[in-house]
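Pilot study result, target chain (128 residues):
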Amino acid sequence: MKIIQTSGAPKAIGPYSQAIEAGNFIFVSGQIPIDPATGELVNGDIKKQLRRVLDNIEAVLMAAGCTLKNIVKVTVFVVDLKSFSEINEVYGEYFNEHRPARSFVEVSALPKGSQIEIEVIAVKDVNK
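Predicted structure:
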């Protein structure tokens, strides 16, 4: 196993890694909308927070030699399922032709008061 770490995404806020590479798989820890430059939660609506989360995920994947197209599974955690259509709107900007499997779960709260958290699993060599 190999730890994946980049300054392009926020540092872990607990005892975990940004991602772990195990074989051809990259397991990206849940990302919340923290700006890696400031270490602060991005304020704003769910669309703004989601863009920051997906940009953070993309930075972690790039550090592992991957892109968003390597993602095979996405798990989305939100504090309000009523934001489903807004999330899908922005999500579709990042995942238009490539559509990984996805779960969408409402939770009672997320770290730092975030509205959204996303974790992903990617495959390093999609041709195997």
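One observation from the pilot: Residues 2-123 form a domain with the 60s Ribosomal Protein L30; Chain: A; fold (CATH 3.30.1330.40). A full batch analysis is planned for the follow-on phase.
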